[in-house]
Amino acid sequence: MMIIVICRVMIGVLDMIWWNPKRIQSVLSKQGIRGPKTSFLYGNVKQIQQMEMIIKSSASSSSSSSSDGQPAVSHHQWLRSSFPYLQEWSRLYGRTYMFSTGTKQHLYVNQPELIKELKQHKSLDLGKPSYLSKARRPILGNGVIKANGHHWALQKKLIAPHFFPLQVKGMVGLMEECTTTMIRTWEQRLAEESQGGVAEFMVDQDLKDLSIDIISRAFFGSSYYLGKTICKKLRAMEETLAKPSLLFGLPYLGFLPTQGRRKTWRLEKEVEALILNVVKGRQEDAGKYSKDLLQMILERASTDIELQQDKHKMERFMVDTCTNIHFAGYETIVSSASWTLMLLALHPEWQQRVRSEIIETCGDHIPSMSLDWDKLSQFKNLGNAILESLRLYAPSAVIAREAFADIKLDGGDSNGNNFVVPKGVHIWSFVPLLHRDTENWGPDANEFNPERFRDYQAKAVVGEHEAARRHVAQSDEAVSELRTSDDPQAEPLRSIGSMNSRVGTGETGF
Ligand code: HEM
User: 98 CA distance to ligand 1 centroid (A)?
Assistant: First the structure.
């Protein structure tokens, strides 16, 4: 008996570390997919680590200062430093290739059509990678961003209707209110600090505060201050969890009580208690509260039979929804708003165009602006500048999926033929490479040229924006939130400190 058990365990282990990786690699290579040579147990982990080390040391040794002694703004430095191995293997093996991180086999794809297909794949056989979910569990739980199958569908059904365009339109007023407050502080500072009408602001912290402000008001409404505390704690958790590597697929040592992890666990408990406290208050006296997002989602969830029958499931849903919306909405907006302002500052001719169209529609005094959806949609230059900034500096760098069964992708190989992705394969795409591909975007792919979106602003940016639109129509909220944060009066901003894009966290808000 004992011998049978031992044999079974040994066969299981061998299957995991040897036969299964070899089988997957062989299925892919028979379909013409190449990739770097793998080694037993480690796959390509050593090459990945080596390339990350080289990039790290070259980044720390290169002192990139411009002639005036200011830190130089490099458009491309960050691209080189994020996931260098994906870029190097792309160069060597083409748009589709395979690699391995030991027991996990990966397929990299970089064709727009294929990515579109991945995004539009309806079957639940394709989902978010389970190991990423584990690594991000403290912050995302099993919320809509990480969930798969039935659990994802249930959450999507309850959340998505609150992000339809009509609902987002209703939030423009509060976005404008929060943004106007921030702009007034800038004006005040400009009046106090400027020399010759020009002052230097580090706007990224202000944009972070603005994003928290908007999310807290939209989501928590009358529980705004509590909402703000929750958002700040979530921020602290995100910072302790951010790790720019695909290697968190390696045997995960998340149980070790390191200092950082103890902090995360403590914050996790605090956030959960705070959210449940707000939810409980609202369940006891619903009439007292305004119809903010939390209230509407709670009311909708209370009518769901599955959640009604299980108090724990209901609580989990509410906690995960708060954390997921915060995670998805916060940094995407901060990063895109920061980059849009930065790029406009670097291209004064575009800043002027944007300013003129806003003044034309709204007048040149903030109190008279009073934005609404129709006015926002008239800002074509601003819309194009935002799309161009999302293209160049996509806030979510990686698109990732896991095949839970063998799946067929149309036109996947180099000849446009169908190919089969075996069960267990993790599929990746690196959005910045896709967005700067000269074959798709033309020879000026690395340049800021919002003009390229003139004829098809309504169409989404390949990958990124399309995904955002498809999933929760959230790009409507995103773009309107970004549009409200562009100030027609601000002087050209000369520098923006510590740009903090989400690139490199391996997260996409997906
Ligand atoms: C510039 C702003 C934004 C960008 C570029 C962006 C991008 C994305 C992308 C690429 C995905 C899907 C990834 C995938 O399919 O794998 C996604 C999903 C998601 N986003 Fe955003 N997003 C933005 C803003 C927001 C905002 C403001 C919210 C909510 C307040 C939000 C909520 C979500 C949610 C809930 C999902 C998961 C949907 C699902 O899995 O069904 N996003 N986002």
Answer: 27
CATH number for position 446:
1.10.630.10
Query: Pocket of ligand 1, candidates 211, 472, 480: which has the most ligand atoms within 8 Å of its Cβ, to mutate?
Result: 472
Q: What is the pLDDT of residues 440-478, one digit of tens each?
A: 899 999 999 999 998 755 444 444 444 433 333 334 445
**Which pair of tokens denotes residue 306?**
């599955």
**Domain ranges, residue 227:** 2-45+78-484
Q: Is residue 506 part of a domain?
A: no
Q: How many CB atoms lie within 10 A of CB 107?
A: 24
Q: How many other CB atoms sit within 10 Å of the CB of residue 480?
A: 21
The answer to whether residue 112 sits within a structural domain is yes
CA distance 473 to 161: 9
Cα gap 246→244, rounded to integer Å: 7
Ligand 1 contacts (CB < 6 A) are 119, 144-145, 156, 324-325, 328-329, 332-333, 336, 390, 395-396, 399, 464, 467-468, 471-472, 474, 477-478, 508-510
Model pTM score:
0.81
The SS3 assignment for 430 reads strand
